[in-house]
Amino acid sequence: MIDFDTVIERRNTDSVKWDRYRDRDILPLWVADMDFASPPAIIQALQERVAHGVFGYGNAPRGLLDAILAYVADHNGWGLHPEWIVWLPGLVTGLNLACRATGSPGDVVLTLTPVYPPFLSAPNLAGRKLATAPLRLARDRYTIDWDGLEESVTADTSLFLLCNPHNPVGRVYETEELERLARFCERHDLTICADEIHAGLVLDKSRRHRSIGSLGPELAQRTITLMAPSKAFNMPGLGFSFAVIPDPALRARFRGHMKGIVPDINVLGFAAALAAYREGEPWRRALIDYLRRNAETLVAAVRAMPGLGVASVEATYLAWIDARGLGVENPQRFFEGAGVGLSDGADFGAPGFVRLNFGCRRALLEEALGRMHQALSIHKPPG
Ligand SMILES: Cc1ncc(COP(=O)(O)O)c(C=O)c1O
Hints:
By secondary structure, this protein is an alpha/beta fold. 37% of the residues lie in helices and 16% in strands. The longest helix has 23 residues, at 281-303.
């Protein structure tokens, strides 16, 4: 029995999420980590590794590559070759490396907005320019505006950053969309960097995550796919992820930019990853069931609140809420005032929106929704 309802106190545990509101009665539903304990298999693997007591530099544990290959074949239908894999301590590192390892300084990096903030900052940090193509909302679902995308690309564009599943809008792109994106990137000769950190968190039973790199061997040559067990198996603080780069020349450039800067993965991250891929699956399935019910609770409650709208959540434990109807300048601050700490949509390129992390106990989520409802029942929109 896996119990996601048990209270695990995270105050005074040096948690980024909980420390923000340390001395205030504000429920933290912002940064993307979950309040649940990690899968028992991971905890046990870490306890055994810690019991050894020696924490020197580590190699990847024997069996890790095979476990990853089996997992990705099973879940993404993609047969990876071991040499394609480059270990990374984090996906944000991977996004920034992708911007440096493709094109030339001054080139343009294109992405779909709203999007996870490092997508917006990585191009400039690499001396590239950012171009954005807004997603379009159609019946509670964000879709790609193909004309807008074509208008956003120029001869200087060399990289397309894809977030799939898409944080914060919760989409899992369908095969037809990925194929059309692939043709678009081929036509404009763009490298594709796909962030798939939320791939293990598909909640909608009618959807299946696919890696764009798996669509064909030729297309794969222009892809950098960033993967990790960190979200689906709830180990984001352990610093384990990897890039999949089939093209040897691109992989060499990527590795070249890591030299002397990007550290190796630590022994605990390696141990946890092996346990996640080998033994974490029953826990992840139970998690998906729990998160699906959280999502249903949340979507129903938010849609009943005046002035708010929420996109349907196909994947992730993040809900993207349109609060422009409230008529307040900063909805993130408005909800903080109501005792609920959300992420500000402005950071994702969309002021007037907020992102809510429902990777928490249902009782806590219900309390937060109650606080939001209460605040809205006394709120008078201007005019
Ligand atoms: C889309 C996406 N990419 C990357 C990350 C962070 O990855 P890491 O902690 O491995 O740098 C997150 C965390 O929320 C995310 O949502």
